Amino acid sequence: MPDDPPLPMRPNPAGTPRYRSKTVATWLAVLGGALGAHRFYLRGWRDPAGWLYWPPALLGLLGVQRMRAFGQDDRVASWLIPLLGLTLSAAMLSAIVHGLTPDAAWDARHNPGQPPRRTGWLPVLGVIAALLIGATALLSTVAFSVQRFFEWQLADAPAQRSSSRLPP
């Protein structure tokens, strides 16, 4: 989503376009990115890509709730939980891209016609947090999915072995 063309900025009541901070966008992606908070901050409530974050995140949370209620053998939960991990990983990738965008490029894209501002180290700290959270979410999602796949293969294997031993 970082490659989307910039949307025209609506002026605030004073008549000047609203300033969009790289620091705020980075930290919104870290803290609320799974629900598209950074997209809504940058592009407004009408951003269709921002609304695409909601379904997989909520389905993943439903999977977590199902696993807590029904245990680890719930196959529906095993299909839903990776959606949350992938949504978190995508949000952390957005935080990394936002935080590492040079100030001049950020201002040219999101704050055209406004004086440039230096952001300092806060976006970099957001990138570090995003790397930690994103790597953990992605590796956990892959490990969980692979573990579930092999557990299902082993659970189905005795049935296949016993049916293959029956005489014709």
Structural class: mainly alpha
Provide the helix percentage.
55-70%
Average pLDDT score: 87
SSE pattern, N- to C-terminal:
HHHHHHH
Range of strand content: under 5%
Intertermini distance: 58 Å
Overall shape: elongated
Number of strands: 0
Number of helices: 7
Instruction: Provide the low-confidence segments as ranges.
Output: none
Major sheet: none
Radius of gyration: 22 Å
Helix and strand arrangement:
Blueprint lengths: L21 H11 L4 H7 L4 H4 L2 H17 L4 H26 L2 H8 L11 H43 L4
Helix pairs in contact: 1-2, 1-5, 1-7, 4-5, 5-7
Fold and architecture overview:
- The chain is an all-alpha fold and 168 residues long.
- It has a domain of 97 residues.
- Helix content is 69%, strand content 0%.
- It is built from 7 helices and no strands.
- Helix 1 packs antiparallel against helix 2.
- The protein starts with 21 loop residues before the first helix and ends with a helix.
- The mean pLDDT is 87.
